[in-house]
Amino acid sequence: MGIYLITFAISTMLFYLASKVESNKGSIAFSLIAMIPPILIAGMRDLDIGIDIFTYGYDVWNAACSSKSWSSFYSWYGDTSIEIGYLVVNFIVSRFSTDIHVFFAVHEFLLLFFILITAKKLKNRYLLWFLPLFFYLYLYNESLSMLRQSLAVMMGLYVSTFIFEKKIVPFYIGCIICYLFHHSAAFMFLLYPIVVLVRRFHNKRITLLILIVLGTLVMLSFYQLIMNALISAGIADAKYEMYVGVEGNKTHKVDLAFLASLTMMLLAFVKKKQRLFPDFYFTIFFTIIGFSMTLLGSLVEVANRVAYYIIVPLSYMVTETTIGNSKRKILLAGFTLILAARFFYLAITTQTGGTIPYKSMLLDLLL
User: Fold this and answer.
1) Torsion angle of alpha carbons 150, 155, 156, 160, nearest 10°?
2) Are 47 and 156 in contact (CB under 8 A)?
3) 58 CB contacts (<8 Å, ≥6 apart)?
4) How far apart are CA 301 and CA 240, in angstroms?
5) Torsion angle in degrees (nearest 10) through CA of 177, 139, 334, 294
6) Which distant-in-sequence residues (6+ apart) come within 8 Å of 214 by Cβ?
């Protein structure tokens, strides 16, 4: 675990320094340097770090390296459950190197690239260091395992910003691209209507809360029917049938506690005047929806996967909500603490998807 914590600390510090650089070119240069430590750690890991490497990652990579053309590669995997976006990344990287560690490094670079362009797009200096920190504590280790979905989720982080700019066409084009990397991203199409709903009823708190609760109850009651309909329509892959069954042994208590703690901090540290603004309601109701989907994930695993697309945008929504708030630093410090608590809990109890302890034959490390 130590190698991860050291990497996170060094990279976050470099991103923080990048946020202090006045010139845009200098800030980008510092940010690129900050990306090097986590990319190296991801790139040099052993093949038994991360579950998805065993299930499909290694086989897809070998097929890409063995194929002389895209058509021959696609003929191997085009009719499988592996999304075309992920296949394209494998094929392109395999044209430059046949070393899977190079693919691991490129994969991590892409995740950090979407974080960087999101921070730059929103023009919030806090985001330039807080978004990477959020990613490191919330999703970095999982990204070493969830090769396809991590690309869709972090791409979705950038795409979600179009919702709040009311740019519906770029948003849905982005959703389609995310879907090409992981079919769970089909649920991103629901985010725009949710934001429209919040805008429409943000002054009617009880009405909005009732709509959210009713929506959650409908999802809880008819989730299997909804999933089967999506599978039949070809929107969700047939492989999700195995996630639809009851998973009574998974309660995801740590994620529920994380989201509940975030909600309480927002109510405690956001000024009453700021609570009247739509930005606050977006943040609160995204948190509530994330909580609801995580609760649903206690019954059906795919709901917990879908929750990533709702929870990850909270990383910038919280900082945007607290602009001009004297207690912003306290809120961000509290947010960081509950992220760290979640990270340590999962590291100790679940080894975070088989990524702890870190192993690298290249570095001869076992940390």
Assistant:
1) 150
2) no
3) 47, 100
4) 9
5) 80
6) none
**Cα angle, residue 136 at apex, residues 135 and 138 outer, rounded to 5°:** 60
Q: What is the Rg, in whole angstroms, of the alpha carbon atoms belonging to the chain?
A: 20
Please identify which residue in the block is written with the tokens 């702890």: 356
> pTM for the complete prediction?
0.90
User: Which is it for the CA torsion 122, 126, 129, 132, positive or negative?
Assistant: negative
Other CB atoms within 10 A of residue 213 CB: 12
> How far apart, in Å, are the Cα atoms of 173 and each of 156, 160, 177, 361?
11, 11, 6, 41
CA 57 to chain centre: 19
Tokens found for residue 280: 């606050």
* Residues constituting the chain: 367
What is the C-alpha separation between 354 and 366, in angstroms, rounded?
A: 13
d(CA 251, CA 244): 15
Q: Are 331 and 266 in contact (CB under 8 A)?
A: yes
- The residue type found at 52 is D
Q: For the chain, give every domain's residue range.
A: 2-355
Catalogue the E-assigned strands of the chain: 359-360, 365-366
| Structure-token match 């590669």, residue found | 73
pLDDT tens for residues 55-99?
899 999 999 999 999 998 988 776 667 899 999 999 999 999 999
Look at residues 190, 165, 85, 140 and name the one whose alpha carbon lies nearest to residue 315: 140
| In contact, 268 and 215? CB cutoff 8 Å | no
| Mean per-residue pLDDT over the chain, rounded | 85
Give the 3-state secondary structure percentages of the chain, helix then strand then coil, rounded to 5: 80, 0, 20
- Which token pair is 63? 């097929």
Closest Cα to residue 226, out of 296, 280, 294, 160? Answer: 296
Structure confidence at residue 243 (pLDDT): 58
- Amino acid found at 126: Y
Measured from the Cβ of residue 60, the count of other Cβ atoms closer than 10 Å reads 26
pLDDT digit string, tens, across residues 303-325: 778 889 999 999 998 887 766 66
Q: What is the rounded distance in angstroms from the CA atom of residue 182 to the CA atom of residue 236?
A: 9
What confidence category does residue 244 fall into, taking pLDDT thresholds of 50, 70 and 90? Answer: low
